[in-house]
Automatic annotation (TrEMBL):
Domain of life: Bacteria
Native organism taxonomy: Bacteria, Pseudomonadati, Pseudomonadota, Gammaproteobacteria, Lysobacterales
Protein's recorded name: Putative NAD-dependent epimerase/dehydratase family protein
Domain D-glutamate N-acetyltransferase-like N-terminal: 55-137
Family annotation (SUPFAM superfamilies): P-loop containing nucleoside triphosphate hydrolases
Pfam families the UniProt entry points to: DUF1611, DUF1611_N
UniProt-listed Gene3D superfamilies: NAD(P)-binding Rossmann-like Domain (3.40.50.720), P-loop containing nucleotide triphosphate hydrolases (3.40.50.300)
Coiled coil: none
Domain (D-glutamate N-acetyltransferase-like C-terminal) ranges: 143-337
Family matches, as InterPro entries: DgcN-like (IPR011669), DgcN-like_C (IPR035086), DgcN-like_N (IPR035402), P-loop_NTPase (IPR027417)
Length: 347
């Protein structure tokens, strides 16, 4: 494996662990993707979950107060929510202070910095606790050069936010390595960074430098090396399309995989904006991606079928494969459909 290029201020292996996952007062599962991502990809580091009154989202882990979690071995509370704008509501201050009082450090991946919140900063200082933010880009990011780079690259792109781009990239990177291929998962968001231990929080980078940040994340590599890059947002998103486009141009992917959640009708949190089709997303991705990678191709599609029964999910995957003429799989279900997707990515 190639050496990680970028590290978060405190690499994952040095962060205080295990974690208590904080769900705030969240009522929309899509906004709790950090908690779900850690549950699914770093389960051994998670002791349980904690939430405010009124929360309706759960990871299924044991509910614990911070004191109970500390007694069970937890050493930090991770904010497991990624809400629009990345802010920390005042309603969270008390439970976060409760975690500090119980002996836990705080780990955040929001745009809002924990140390900028006076009650948290004062409580942490009084108790000698740490406030750790992982959404911290490096300070020396260049403007993108657009120069072709050696190595192979795969980027996951979505029809919307929070529907499987990270899971797809993690599953594909793991499958590549299992086949003996030199490959790295390249994280671009707070959850991926917490899972992988390094990465680039692309949506925290000043826009003029975002494509350059993507170039830094996936530098020149051996001809047979693959960087599997976690996508962000959607090229159609009314708020986040700029991040998605910068990542596409800077990554210069040889291969894109389109991620979608069947049944979702509108952009998460934007009911006035209908979801684009998979076909429209493929077409736009290839059109825009050719600017920096003329040979870009779509290897297939992943569907998040977590809300469907097994038989229904398999029928849908088969139907969409035939309809689109591409490999279509749910990376969390695996099976022959996913193996075909892996093969088509590497073809």
């Amino acid at each position: 494996m190639s050496q990680p290029l970028l590290s978060i201020p405190a690499a994952t292996e040095t962060l205080p662990q295990p974690y208590l996952l904080f769900l705030g007062d969240t009522t929309e599962a899509g906004y709790a993707k950090t908690a779900f991502g850690l549950r699914d990809w770093a389960r051994e580091r998670c002791v349980g979950e904690f939430a405010c009154a009124g929360a309706t989202v759960s990871t299924g882990l044991a509910f614990m107060t911070p004191l109970q979690a500390y007694a069970a071995g937890a050493r930090s509370l991770v904010i497991g929510v990624a809400n629009p704008g990345g802010y920390i509501p005042t309603a969270w201050f008390e439970p976060l202070q409760q975690a500090l009082e119980a002996g836990l450090d705080l780990i955040g991946g929001m745009h809002a910095r924990l140390a900028d919140i006076v009650p948290l900063r004062e409580t942490a200082a009084r108790l000698g606790r740490r406030l750790i933010d992982v959404r911290q880009p490096p300070s020396d990011i260049p403007v993108a050069s657009g120069r072709p780079r050696r190595g192979r690259r795969l980027l996951t792109l979505g029809t919307d936010c929070a529907l499987g781009k990270k899971y797809t990239a993690l599953a594909l990177a793991r499958a590549f390595v299992a086949r003996g291929i030199d490959a790295d998962f390249r994280a671009t968001g707070q959850t991926g960074i917490l899972i992988a231990g390094q990465g680039m929080p692309i949506d925290a980078v000043v826009s003029d430098f975002a494509a350059g940040a993507a170039e830094m994340l996936s530098p020149d590599a051996a001809d047979d090396h693959w960087d599997v890059i976690e996508g962000q947002g959607s090229l159609f998103h009314p708020a986040y399309a700029g991040v998605s486009l910068a990542l596409l141009h800077g990554s210069q992917p040889d291969v894109v995989v389109i991620c979608h959640q069947p049944g979702r009708t509108h952009m998460l949190g934007y009911p006035q904006h209908p979801l684009p089709s998979v076909e429209a997303t493929i077409e736009l991705a290839l059109q825009l991606g050719r600017r920096t990678q003329p040979a870009i191709r779509c290897a297939g599609v992943t569907l998040n079928t977590s809300h469907l029964a097994e038989a229904e999910a398999l029928r849908l995957l088969s139907h969409e494969r035939d309809r689109l003429g591409l490999a279509v799989a749910d990376p969390m279900r695996g099976g022959a459909a996913f193996e075909r997707l892996v093969e088509d990515c590497l073809a």
